[in-house]
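--- STAGE predict ---
source: upstream dedup step, 1 unique chain passed
mode: sequence only
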Amino acid sequence: MSDATFSHLDPLGRARMVDVTPKEPTHRRAMARCKVFMQPSTTAAIANREVKKGDVLAVARVAGIQAAKRTSDMIPLCHPLLIGSVTINFEIGDAFVAVECHVDTIDRTGVEMEALHACSVAALTIYDMCKSADREMVIGDLTPV
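--- STAGE serialize ---
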Protein backbone atom coordinates (compact mmCIF):
# COMPACT_ATOMS: atom_id res chain seq x y z
CA MET A 1 0.00 0.00 0.00
CA SER A 2 1.28 3.51 -0.76
CA ASP A 3 2.03 6.19 1.79
CA ALA A 4 -0.79 8.36 0.45
CA THR A 5 -3.10 9.86 3.01
CA PHE A 6 -6.82 9.70 2.52
CA SER A 7 -8.58 13.04 2.85
CA HIS A 8 -11.79 11.35 3.97
CA LEU A 9 -10.20 9.92 7.12
CA ASP A 10 -9.49 11.79 10.32
CA PRO A 11 -6.24 11.17 12.29
CA LEU A 12 -7.90 8.21 14.04
CA GLY A 13 -8.93 6.60 10.75
CA ARG A 14 -12.62 7.49 11.04
CA ALA A 15 -14.60 8.58 8.01
CA ARG A 16 -15.24 12.30 7.71
CA MET A 17 -16.46 14.77 5.14
CA VAL A 18 -13.65 16.96 3.84
CA ASP A 19 -14.00 20.65 4.72
CA VAL A 20 -14.14 22.53 1.41
CA THR A 21 -15.36 25.84 2.86
CA PRO A 22 -11.93 27.54 2.59
CA LYS A 23 -11.82 26.87 -1.17
CA GLU A 24 -13.03 29.36 -3.76
CA PRO A 25 -15.74 28.15 -6.15
CA THR A 26 -14.32 27.41 -9.60
CA HIS A 27 -15.64 25.83 -12.77
CA ARG A 28 -15.46 22.05 -12.44
CA ARG A 29 -16.06 19.52 -15.20
CA ALA A 30 -15.89 15.74 -15.18
CA MET A 31 -16.56 13.02 -17.72
CA ALA A 32 -17.16 9.32 -17.27
CA ARG A 33 -17.84 6.40 -19.58
CA CYS A 34 -19.10 2.85 -19.36
CA LYS A 35 -20.55 0.17 -21.62
CA VAL A 36 -23.43 -2.24 -21.50
CA PHE A 37 -22.45 -5.35 -23.47
CA MET A 38 -25.37 -7.23 -25.02
CA GLN A 39 -26.61 -9.40 -27.87
CA PRO A 40 -26.66 -7.71 -31.31
CA SER A 41 -30.42 -8.27 -31.41
CA THR A 42 -30.76 -6.19 -28.25
CA THR A 43 -28.77 -3.28 -29.66
CA ALA A 44 -30.94 -3.45 -32.78
CA ALA A 45 -34.11 -3.35 -30.68
CA ILE A 46 -32.80 -0.31 -28.79
CA ALA A 47 -31.78 1.48 -31.99
CA ASN A 48 -35.14 0.76 -33.63
CA ARG A 49 -37.11 1.67 -30.48
CA GLU A 50 -38.65 -1.79 -30.35
CA VAL A 51 -38.09 -2.51 -26.65
CA LYS A 52 -41.45 -3.20 -24.99
CA LYS A 53 -40.75 -0.99 -21.96
CA GLY A 54 -40.27 2.11 -24.12
CA ASP A 55 -37.53 4.35 -25.49
CA VAL A 56 -34.55 2.90 -23.64
CA LEU A 57 -32.08 5.70 -24.29
CA ALA A 58 -34.54 8.49 -23.45
CA VAL A 59 -35.36 6.87 -20.11
CA ALA A 60 -31.68 6.09 -19.40
CA ARG A 61 -30.74 9.72 -20.13
CA VAL A 62 -33.29 11.05 -17.63
CA ALA A 63 -32.25 8.45 -15.05
CA GLY A 64 -28.60 9.46 -15.44
CA ILE A 65 -29.39 13.15 -15.06
CA GLN A 66 -31.40 12.43 -11.91
CA ALA A 67 -28.54 10.30 -10.57
CA ALA A 68 -26.00 13.08 -11.04
CA LYS A 69 -28.20 15.44 -9.05
CA ARG A 70 -28.70 12.92 -6.22
CA THR A 71 -25.13 11.61 -5.87
CA SER A 72 -24.62 13.01 -2.37
CA ASP A 73 -27.78 11.17 -1.24
CA MET A 74 -26.24 7.84 -2.27
CA ILE A 75 -22.53 8.30 -1.54
CA PRO A 76 -22.21 9.43 2.07
CA LEU A 77 -19.04 11.54 1.91
CA CYS A 78 -19.89 13.41 -1.31
CA HIS A 79 -20.80 17.05 -0.91
CA PRO A 80 -24.21 18.22 -2.12
CA LEU A 81 -23.47 20.34 -5.19
CA LEU A 82 -25.39 22.73 -7.37
CA ILE A 83 -25.07 20.92 -10.67
CA GLY A 84 -24.99 23.35 -13.57
CA SER A 85 -25.19 20.89 -16.44
CA VAL A 86 -25.44 17.16 -17.12
CA THR A 87 -25.11 15.77 -20.63
CA ILE A 88 -25.47 12.08 -21.38
CA ASN A 89 -24.69 10.64 -24.80
CA PHE A 90 -24.96 7.11 -26.14
CA GLU A 91 -23.17 5.19 -28.86
CA ILE A 92 -24.81 2.03 -30.14
CA GLY A 93 -22.31 -0.56 -31.35
CA ASP A 94 -22.92 -4.04 -32.74
CA ALA A 95 -22.93 -5.67 -29.30
CA PHE A 96 -22.84 -2.78 -26.80
CA VAL A 97 -24.24 0.57 -25.83
CA ALA A 98 -21.61 3.04 -24.64
CA VAL A 99 -22.67 5.70 -22.14
CA GLU A 100 -20.75 8.96 -21.78
CA CYS A 101 -21.59 11.59 -19.19
CA HIS A 102 -20.37 15.18 -18.77
CA VAL A 103 -21.11 17.12 -15.58
CA ASP A 104 -20.37 20.80 -14.96
CA THR A 105 -20.63 22.99 -11.89
CA ILE A 106 -19.17 26.08 -10.32
CA ASP A 107 -18.38 24.93 -6.80
CA ARG A 108 -15.66 24.09 -4.27
CA THR A 109 -15.20 20.43 -5.14
CA GLY A 110 -15.15 18.27 -8.25
CA VAL A 111 -17.96 16.39 -9.95
CA GLU A 112 -16.19 13.12 -10.79
CA MET A 113 -18.47 11.07 -8.56
CA GLU A 114 -21.53 12.71 -10.09
CA ALA A 115 -20.35 11.76 -13.59
CA LEU A 116 -19.56 8.18 -12.53
CA HIS A 117 -22.89 7.85 -10.70
CA ALA A 118 -24.80 9.20 -13.72
CA CYS A 119 -23.08 6.71 -16.05
CA SER A 120 -23.77 3.83 -13.69
CA VAL A 121 -27.45 4.60 -13.30
CA ALA A 122 -27.94 5.18 -17.03
CA ALA A 123 -26.32 1.77 -17.66
CA LEU A 124 -28.45 0.12 -14.97
CA THR A 125 -31.54 1.60 -16.58
CA ILE A 126 -30.57 0.16 -19.96
CA TYR A 127 -30.03 -3.20 -18.28
CA ASP A 128 -33.38 -3.02 -16.47
CA MET A 129 -35.34 -2.12 -19.57
CA CYS A 130 -33.74 -4.87 -21.71
CA LYS A 131 -33.24 -7.72 -19.24
CA SER A 132 -36.38 -9.60 -20.25
CA ALA A 133 -34.99 -9.96 -23.79
CA ASP A 134 -31.30 -10.43 -22.95
CA ARG A 135 -30.23 -12.21 -19.76
CA GLU A 136 -26.53 -12.14 -20.70
CA MET A 137 -25.93 -8.38 -20.60
CA VAL A 138 -22.86 -7.17 -18.72
CA ILE A 139 -22.14 -3.65 -17.48
CA GLY A 140 -18.44 -2.79 -17.55
CA ASP A 141 -15.61 -0.43 -18.34
CA LEU A 142 -16.83 2.28 -15.94
CA THR A 143 -14.11 4.90 -15.76
CA PRO A 144 -13.56 8.61 -15.32
CA VAL A 145 -12.18 10.21 -18.47
